[in-house]
Structures are given as C-alpha cells and as structure tokens.
Design brief:
The protein has 258 residues and is of the alpha/beta class. 40% of the residues lie in helices and 23% in strands. The strands form 2 sheets. It has a 7-stranded mixed sheet with strand order 3-2-1-4-5-10-6, sandwiched between helices. A 3-stranded antiparallel sheet has the order 7-9-8. The chain is globular and about 50 Å long. The protein binds benzoic acid. Benzoic acid (BEZ) binds next to loops.
Length: 258
C-alpha cells in the first residue's frame, strides 16, 4: 500500500498483510492491463509489502518497488530479497534510466498533490512508456466518510480537515494527465464493494488501519466511541451476515507518454 504520501510514515505491516490482503489480491486484475513483458523496466509505485512487484518480476520484467513508508519497504525486502525496493515519494522521485512502465495499485488516493505525482511519473517514462493505475475515485468509501464525519461532530471536530484522501472523477484525473502531456487511452470508474476480513471487527480494523488520521485528535477512549458510532450508523447498509463490506469505487486508467 501503497501509501506514498501518508503524513506519518508508520504502517503496521503485520496488520496490513494479515487482514488487508485484499489490497493486492484485487490489484492482480490490474496486472492484466500492465501486461508486463520480459526485459521491460517497470516501477511499482507504492509497492507496499511487494506482492504485486513480485508478480511483475515473475513475468520477466526488471521491476523496482518504491513506497513512502519505510516499514513497508523493510517488509518488502524481507519478503522478496531478489527485488530492489526503495523508500521514495510519489510527488518527487527520479529514476536512473527512463522506464517502459509505471504501475500503481491502490496508492494515488493518498497523494493529494496529484500534479506533482503525474509530473514525476511522466518524466520517469520513455517516449511510448505507459502509466497503469487504479485507485479510489470520486465517491469512494463515501458512506464511511459520512459516518465518520457525523460521529466526529459530537466532539466538535471537522472531518474535512483530517481527511487524508484524494478521490477524483475520471474527468478530473484524465484532464490532469492530458495537461502534462499524457494520452489517456483507457479510463473507467466502477463500484467495487469490498468485503472486509475479521467478521464483526472488520470495520473497526479497517478504520484503525486506513482512517486513523480522522481519530488523531481523540483519546483512546474517544476512538472507541467514534468507531462504535460509525458501526451503528453503517450496520444497516454495510454489515450483512457477519461481514462488513466497504463501499469502494475505483478509477482505472491507462495513459501513454507520446
Ligand atoms: C482504497 O483502496 O480505495 C482505499 C483504501 C484505504 C483508504 C481509503 C481508500
């Protein structure tokens, strides 16, 4: 995860690998759009603990994984010692040699400075190089954000200022790509309701893993109160037969540097 621009640099990699494996499991579908070829040079931007980087390597490509979180990179190196992994920032990275492709799964919704990330990606590619990405789109986890906002109102906290995510529409993101010289050859927005692991604890785990910035100003006791209020609000719509489902909506994009 693909979390290149999270304000704090700490990610619990055990929690991530044990309970949120769906992040890279869903990402495998995106690999079909990348279609990595033997000998190609490819960057996995926001590689998390490296599972998709390894799949790209298995296709015979020369792949390197980067992530903003040093904990993720340490774990990726342990998982796949034969692959190069480095800490880097999506908004400001450079490569030694121009690449055939940049791949990014479930990361770019953490990067509010989308312009800077697109500029870095563009400069890293060869002419003809491709950028293949999937991330949260406009409306992603909207029910969860709405429930968090209303639970935080009880503590006079505005969720808007604590929201770490950027969820653009296709039009918005394709325009940013075109403005920086990319040809957008494929773009789709689709709902992807995502069942969470761990039964009844699934929503609380998800909030603790991914939405902790909303809770930053609260005590431990207040965390519990907010999470409970969010669960109560969402139960009728997102909890069925012992499983929580997060209301994910994805944007999937393929763009070429002419
Ligand atoms: C996502 O993959 O859409 C996502 C993951 C964590 C937080 C927000 C969105």
């Amino acid at each position: 995860m693909n979390n290149l621009s999270i304000p704090n640099n700490y990610w619990d990699t055990s929690l991530y690998e044990d309970k949120h494996a769906f992040v890279w499991q869903y990402g495998e579908d995106l690999l079909k759009f990348l279609n990595p070829q033997p000998g190609e040079s490819i960057l996995d931007l926001g590689c998390g603990t490296g599972q998709l980087t390894e799949k790209i390597a298995q296709a015979g490509a020369q792949v390197m994984g980067v992530d903003h979180a040093s904990t993720m990179i340490e774990k990726a190196r342990q998982n796949y010692p034969h692959i190069r992994f480095d800490v880097a920032d999506a908004t400001n990275f450079q490569v030694d040699k121009p690449l055939d492709a940049v791949f990014s799964n479930a990361v770019l919704h953490w990067v509010k400075e989308a312009d800077s990330a697109i500029a870095s990606i563009h400069q890293s590619l060869k002419p003809g190089g491709r950028f293949v990405a999937e991330f949260g789109s406009k409306g992603n986890v909207e029910a969860i954000v709405t429930a968090l906002s209303s639970a935080l109102e009880a503590f006079n906290i505005s969720a808007q200022t604590l929201n770490p995510w950027y969820f653009p529409s296709i039009g918005e993101y394709a325009t940013l790509l075109e403005q920086q010289g990319f040809d957008v050859i494929y773009a789709i927005l689709f709902p992807r309701p995502t069942p969470l692991a761990e039964g009844e604890a699934g929503m609380a785990n998800w909030i603790q893993m991914f939405a902790s910035s909303f809770l930053a100003e609260l005590s431990g006791e207040q965390h519990t109160q907010v999470i409970h209020a969010v669960e109560e609000q969402l139960k009728p719509t997102l909890y069925q037969q012992g499983t929580w489902t997060a209301d994910y909506r994805r944007i999937r994009i393929v763009a070429i540097k002419p």
